[in-house]
């Protein structure tokens, strides 16, 4: 069971949340504002820090002039050091880890549940679907691949400096991208909150990925489908960035003699109407859009699932962006026919069912309010595309969360059509146990992040360097 401190905090949390939700329901609805809001005044915000504090640099970008949609980029410092070619590593170096700190932070894939208990850490209660202890890739091997290609040169030489950091030609590698959608029941939370900033930094380190935390519009100022549209806009923006980076490369560089590149014109680059570069240098230099993962927390998992479905429907039209996997953390699924957990755990900690019903009423349009709405219930008929086309999906659920059964049922449907869709259920855990501010530094939250990194590396590692399961 949760500790006494967590139980007390849950009581005050629910009282405060109920007051805020009811006040927003009782406030006369204003005319729809397409610009919307992406955070609340009461949220504690972590400022962006581009100086690689604790190994992660971050910066904020407003990407849609017609709305408040923004993203926060988290770039791990591992992107700055190109991996040493395997052929140049001495035999002794191949037999020993070259960097003990990185070896530990990557979440050793050989730690099983017995080891967790022996170290005083909580283990997963159950694991549904395929599982097993992966083997670590050979030390010195570059699982994600290094990039020594010279690209985006004009970005480096035309003033693309961001508060002390500018990508350098020979000091970078290509990393996978993870789009992260925060939780908050549609009406609260933000991509730059203290808790979300901490979580994204943790994921960027453990998974060795570039995290793009999405600041989508909140309800009731922007009801459905605003948040879903924002999620898809970010994916399309990422596609545009990848294509612009290629265009910029072709404008600024050409093949020289042999294998060397020569710069034609450092000032030739794609600009907007105000003369500013429209290519994001951090992504142009370090991101690999062909390895894109979606991660959604609570209601953010609903957005991630929607974006994944739209990516599947778009197919090759989304190239060069490819969604290779998605992670749904305690998804905010519901339906008109209650499940066993919805009945038994209706008054659970932090986000109980009555509170979540208020959130759904604020999010869904009043005339379309229905618990079997496609945004709410993942198992309604006719909710395309066919499940067999969905990407590999990891679902994280908590034992004491009333939404757990429907999330497990959705995962079971994916496995029936041969989609890799394991479920990790955590004992004595509550909704948002790995992302809520008061629980962020708990051993359970750390274990959950490590488990996510172990699973996702199967799909973001280059072929031949995947973990074995």
Q: What is the total number of structural domains?
A: 1
Beta-strand percentage range = 5-15%
Shape: globular
Order of helices and strands: HEEHHHEHEHEHEEHEHEHHEHEH
The assigned CATH architecture is 3-Layer(aba) Sandwich
Annotation field: number of helices? 13
* The CATH homology group name: Alpha/Beta hydrolase fold, catalytic domain
Residues in helices, as a percent range:
25-40%
Low-confidence stretches: 93-114, 130-163, 254-268
CATH class: Alpha Beta
Amino- and carboxy-terminal Cα gap: 31 Å
**Numbering strands along the chain, what is their spatial order in the largest sheet?**
1-2-5-4-8-9-10-11-3
The major pleated sheet works out as: 9 strands, mixed
> Structural class, from helix and strand content?
alpha/beta
> What's the alpha carbon Rg, rounded to whole Å?
22 Å
Return the average pLDDT rounded to an integer: 80
Kindly identify the CATH topology.
Rossmann fold
Quick one: how many beta strands? 11
Write a short abstract of this structure.
This protein has one domain: Alpha/Beta hydrolase fold, catalytic domain (Rossmann fold).
Notes on the protein architecture:
This protein is α/β, with parallel strands linked by helices. The chain has one domain: Alpha/Beta hydrolase fold, catalytic domain (Rossmann fold). 33% of the residues lie in helices and 14% in strands. The chain contains 13 helices and eleven strands. Strands 1-2-5-4-8-9-10-11-3 form a nine-stranded mixed β-sheet, with helices on both faces. The protein has a two-stranded antiparallel ribbon with strand order 6-7. The chain is globular and about 60 Å long. It starts with a helix and ends in a 9-residue tail after the last helix. This is Alpha/beta hydrolase fold-3 domain-containing protein. It comes from Acacia crassicarpa. Belongs to the 'GDXG' lipolytic enzyme family. GO terms for molecular function: hydrolase activity.
């Amino acid at each position: 069971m949760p500790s006494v401190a967590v139980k007390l905090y849950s009581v005050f949390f629910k009282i405060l949340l109920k007051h805020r939700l009811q006040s927003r329901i009782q406030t006369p609805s204003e005319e729809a504002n397409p610009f919307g809001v992406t955070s609340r005044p009461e949220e504690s915000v972590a400022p962006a820090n581009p100086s690689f504090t604790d190994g992660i640099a971050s910066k904020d970008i407003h990407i849609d002039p017609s709305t408040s949609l923004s993203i926060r980029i988290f770039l791990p410092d591992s992107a700055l050091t190109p991996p040493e070619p395997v052929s140049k590593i001495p035999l002794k170096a191949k037999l020993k880890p070259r960097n003990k700190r990185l070896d530990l932070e990557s979440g050793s894939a050989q730690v099983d549940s017995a080891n967790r208990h022996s170290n005083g850490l909580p283990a997963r209660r159950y694991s549904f679907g395929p599982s097993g202890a992966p083997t670590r890739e050979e030390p010195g091997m570059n699982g994600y691949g290094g990039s020594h290609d010279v690209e985006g040169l004009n970005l480096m030489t035309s003033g693309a400096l961001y508060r002390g950091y500018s990508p350098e030609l020979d000091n970078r590698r290509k990393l996978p991208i993870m789009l992260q959608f925060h939780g908050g029941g549609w009406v609260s939370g933000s991509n730059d909150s203290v808790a979300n900033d901490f979580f994204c930094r943790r994921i960027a380190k453990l998974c060795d990925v570039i995290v793009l935390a999405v600041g989508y519009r909140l309800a009731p100022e922007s009801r459905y489908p605003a948040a879903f549209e924002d999620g898809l806009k970010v994916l399309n923006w990422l596609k545009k960035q990848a294509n612009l980076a290629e265009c910029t490369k072709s404008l600024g560089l050409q093949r020289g003699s042999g294998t060397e590149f020569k710069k034609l014109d450092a000032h030739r680059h794609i600009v907007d109407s105000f003369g500013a570069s429209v290519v994001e240098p951090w992504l142009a230099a370090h991101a690999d859009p062909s390895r894109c993962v979606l991660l959604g927390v609570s209601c953010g998992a609903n957005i991630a699932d929607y974006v994944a479905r739209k990516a599947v429907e778009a197919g090759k039209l989304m190239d060069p962006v490819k969604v290779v996997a998605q992670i749904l953390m305690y998804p905010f699924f519901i339906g008109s026919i209650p499940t066993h957990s919805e009945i038994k755990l209706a008054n659970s900690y932090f986000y109980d069912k009555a509170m979540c019903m208020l959130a759904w009423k604020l999010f869904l349009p009043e005339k379309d309010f229905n618990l079997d709405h496609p945004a709410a219930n993942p198992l309604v008929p006719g909710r395309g595309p066919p499940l067999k086309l969905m990407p590999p999906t990891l679902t994280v659920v908590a034992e004491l969360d009333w939404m757990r059964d429907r999330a497990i049922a959705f995962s079971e449907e994916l496995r029936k059509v041969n989609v890799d869709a394991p479920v990790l259920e955590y004992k004595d855990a509550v909704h948002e146990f790995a992302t809520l501010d008061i629980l962020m530094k708990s051993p359970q939250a750390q274990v959950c992040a490590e488990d996510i990194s172990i699973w996702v590396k199967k799909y973001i590692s280059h072929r031949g360097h995947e973990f074995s399961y």
